[in-house]
Amino acid sequence: MGHSVTPPSRLGRLSEGGGTMDAPPLPLEAGQPAVTSSEGVGEATGRSREMLESLLGPGGLVLLRDSVEWEGRSLLKALVRQAVLRGERVHVLGCEVSEEEFREGFDPGTNNRLVYHDLFRDPLNWSNTGEALPGGPLGVLRAMCRRTGPGPVTIALDSLSWLLLHLPCTTLCQTLHALSRQDSRPDDSSPVEHVRVLGLLHEELHGPGPVEALSTLAQIEVTLSGTGDQASAHILYRRPQHRPTHKIQWFTILPDFSLDLQGGSPPKSQPHPDPRTHPVDPATHLTFNLHLSKKEKEAKDSLTLPFQFSSEKQQALLCRGLGQATSHIFYEPDAYDDLDQEDPDDDLDI
Amino acid sequence: MFPELSDLLNASPDRAEPGKLTLLCDAETDGSFLVHHFLSFYLKAHCKVCFVALVQSFSHYNIVGQKLGVSLTTARERGQLVFLEGLRSAVDVFFRAEGEAHPLQFLREAKAASLQPLYEFVREALEPVDQREAAWKRPVLLVDDLSVLLSLGVGAVAVLDFVHYCRACVCCRLRGFRLCLLQGNIVALVHDSGDAEDEESGVLLNGLSHQSHLVLRAEGLATGFCRDVHGQLRVLWRTPSPPAQRGRSLTFQYKIQDKSVSFFAKGLSPAVL
């Protein structure tokens, strides 16, 4: 691409410097819109790159969990674009959308560097024309396990759900494990290169078993949700020998698949009540009085409810046997009243 | 077609969006009015329609279509409509010779593995045969409905694969040797049984929702049956690229009348105002 890749540590310092306009803006690629926010151009771009960089950090499996309401393919494409910008080789295994649809929105440079394996057109070899990729989905995955050369590699699986529905879960997990742990070959003296696997998973399609199995394999888990129009990502980082850390990030994905971050709290774009219309007090124009005076309020607050079980009531109930009865019944029997309880209707003929 | 629904979806017969999968879903109510809407919509838009009708007979759709201003008989005669009448051809399966393929071949198999014959039927129906087909605009596949396939013993994954292949064939441009630019649409109806124990139905519904660009969900009212409001329609736009619509999801209530369906915002039924 011709531009130099800024190492992450310098990015961090730039964004920590605050919104000063002295900091030189980050090199913007052609086609990327300048992010104009109140914080300054450099910092906002830096933070969104930071988030993408943190997701593309160490090698391993990055699991993107999405749902029908909050789709995750845009975030996957944003990560793919970021990986391409970093100069990595990116392979995409496309099962759910056509190659055209996946490539839509990427600039030509990104598209040229993307290696696309098309499993969408004929995954089950129904057309019998021989155009299908050999070995089916499993064959393609296993072919990716073989090292294709030096340098960091990012593999994007779109989607893991499709693979889970068509392959047994154990096979898929083993293959994923083999994919993300491509250590150096015994005869190779080159250093271990990181292979990163980005997997898109549709949560609702699977039971808890397969989802948890994939979750344990993942180094980073991103769960997408949101409120209203604003999407959020709940990111869980699992580093070996560390406690898992998580954070929530609100974001928007721009048309060119770069990220626009909104800070850590729900944004203020929630619908506000119109400030011009004051809330109407319904008790203003009545012919009777609904308001309480201060004394009445005090009396109301100090009133004990009849069925509230307080300690005094408990005492009264417990001590009832000792003290005198609190209520008396005075009964004057009439002349024809029958006090005999055994025959109240007086109709037994004994 | 129902003009109000077309306005809500911002679509009209002369400018239907190409290459889209529209999912119709109903829960605790009958969503077949949506099927009739799209059938008449695409016939009026001069599209070539392949209708896989597994639930009702041809005459049923014809009668409703006539109320909406389209004649299915005429459309079938002039080749605009390819109609697979599931109820009738299901019987034909058993009277065919062993080797001949039939779209509903899976009914004969003890363990219905794939819907490939049905896909082949759809593909042959919608692929243009050069000169004669130039009269029709893009092809459309309409299925009523997919949940019936689950009841007939087909697995949810097999139905998802069928829809996947139909999308690959109908919605997308085929490159390579075939230069036909189909860019058609698919509309399919699924039932949401609401039963948490029915896993296959859940997998089918969610899997299709993830594949679709527009989801129309007709629900009964939570409070029960009402004479003036027959249900609630929720529209969810799922275009992958950042949406340009004013909102991703809209909800309306509707009342089905003899020849039309009227839509209104929640709580604003004309009977109440």
Biggest pleated sheet of chain B = 9 strands, mixed
- CA radius of gyration of chain B is 19 Å
Average predicted local confidence, pLDDT of chain B: 84
Poorly predicted ranges of chain B: 175-180, 242-247
H and E string of chain B? HEHEHHEHHEHHEHEEEE
> Which regions of chain A are unreliable across 5 or more consecutive residues at pLDDT < 50?
1-39, 269-275
Q: Biggest sheet of chain A, strands in spatial order?
A: 3-2-4-5-1-6-7-8-9
Helix/sheet category of chain A: alpha/beta
**Number of helical segments with 4 or more residues of chain A:** 11
Cα distance, first to last residue of chain B? 27 Å
Overall 3D shape of chain B: globular
Cα end-to-end separation of chain A: 115 Å
Portion in beta strands of chain B? 15-25%
Please compute the radius of gyration of chain A using only Cα atoms.
35 Å
Helix content of chain B: 25-40%
Strand arrangement, major sheet of chain B: 3-2-4-5-1-6-7-8-9
Helix content of chain A: 25-40%
Structural class of chain B: alpha/beta
The profile of the biggest β sheet of chain A is: 9 strands, mixed
Strand content of chain A: 15-25%
What would you call the shape of chain A? Answer: elongated
Which secondary structure elements does this structure contain, and how are they paired or packed?
The complex is a heterodimer of chains A (350) and B (273).
Chain A lengths: L7 H9 L24 H15 L4 E7 L6 H13 L3 E6 L4 H5 L4 H6 E5 L17 H10 L7 E6 L1 H7 L2 H12 L14 E8 L5 H10 E10 L2 E8 L7 E9 L5 E3 L32 H8 L9 H8 L32
Parallel strand pairs in A: 1-5, 1-6, 2-3, 2-4, 4-5
Antiparallel strand pairs in A: 6-7, 7-8, 8-9
Helix pairs in contact in A: 1-2, 6-8, 8-9
Chain B lengths: L2 H6 L12 E7 L4 H13 L2 E7 L4 H10 L4 H6 L3 E5 H7 L23 H11 L10 E8 L2 H5 L4 H16 L13 E7 L7 H13 L2 E6 L11 E7 L11 E8 L4 E4 L9
Parallel strand pairs in B: 1-5, 1-6, 2-3, 2-4, 4-5
Antiparallel strand pairs in B: 6-7, 7-8, 8-9
